[in-house]
Every structure is written in structure tokens, then in C-alpha cells.
């Protein structure tokens, strides 16, 4: 089996190639809103943590806006600095990216202190790779693994392109399984 670093390299390349081959009209429609079964799964959780997609990551803006319009509070990851733990802050107007600022790890995060600190009750997480049974290969920084270890009851859902699915991943004790992974063509539910 490949190492995590080798898998990340290969899966990031496959993801970039896949996304660059998509017609712009198709890429705008993909991940427009959560499937009904995921909306039902999120109903008991009024605060949902999502990520602001960067590069070839599965886009989240459609989900963010749909959840916001349907009554959920939206929380995005926030870092005070590169050495700081991941926290979450609210994004109260997901049509206004002026409320976001560059994050220390790249991408965008809510501007502090204007955005309130929030505690997500469910998460939609980025990933580099996943298995059909809910195991996730993250970016490699461990931010979500540490946050989920501190909040083990928080259900986490992955958002990915189909090309990111692999048969097996090297697993470590701190890896937190996902309750579901949503791709443009399938929903994978964890047996756990």
C-alpha cells in the first residue's frame, strides 16, 4: 500500500485533472445543494461547519447557501495563526465574500472579530481521498482529526469527486470515520 504522502500526491493530481476537464456549466451545477438524505441527517444540528473550497476541492458554496437559506447557521474553520488550533466562526452572509479574509493555510476564513465563534454540531469536511466505508485521507495537517477527537460525537460528512475514491487507506488510531461521503454520483454511508 502507498504511503499517505504518496496517496495525497496521486489523488491531488487526479482531482486537479478531473476538475480541469469539467465543462464550466457542469462544474457550476455540481454540489448545488445537499441531497435530501443529507439534509435529513443534518436537521437535528442547527450549526453546521463547512469549509470554503479552494482549488480543486469539492465546492461547498451551493451547500453553504442552501443550508443558510433553510435556517442553519454556517461556521467556517478559523485559525488565529499557523500554530493555532482550528476553531470555527460564523459566516452570516454567504453571498458576501468581503466578510472573509485570507487564512494562514490558504483559502478564506471569516474575518475576526466581526464573525462570532461558533461550535459546529455537524461538519462537512474536505478530503483528498476516501473509502466507501467512510475512511478519509485529509490534507495532512491533522486539523480536522484533532478537532473531531475533541468533539467525538460530532458527525462528519465528506464532500468529494468520484475520482477521489480508493479501495483502502492506511489508517491510524486518530483517524475519525465519516458518517457519509457525498460525490456527484453517489452517497456512501458508513456502517459504523
Kindly describe this structure.
The chain has 192 residues and is an alpha/beta fold. It has one domain (4-189): NagB/RpiA/CoA transferase-like (Rossmann fold), CATH 3.40.50. It has five helices and eleven strands, in the order H-H-H-E-H-E-E-E-E-E-E-E-H-E-E-E. A seven-stranded mixed β-sheet has the order 3-2-1-6-9-10-11. The protein has a two-stranded antiparallel sheet with strand order 4-5. The two termini are 24 Å apart.
**How would you name the oligomeric state of the polypeptide chains in this document?**
single chain
Mean pLDDT: 91
Q: What would the principal axes of the Cα set say about the shape?
A: globular
> In the CATH hierarchy, what is the superfamily?
NagB/RpiA/CoA transferase-like
Instruction: Specify the structural class.
Output: alpha/beta
CA radius of gyration is: 16 Å
> Regarding CATH, which class?
Alpha Beta
**Which stretches of 5+ consecutive residues score pLDDT under 50?**
none
What is the CATH architecture assignment? 3-Layer(aba) Sandwich
- Please report the number of helical segments: 5
What strand line-up does the widest sheet have? 3-2-1-6-9-10-11
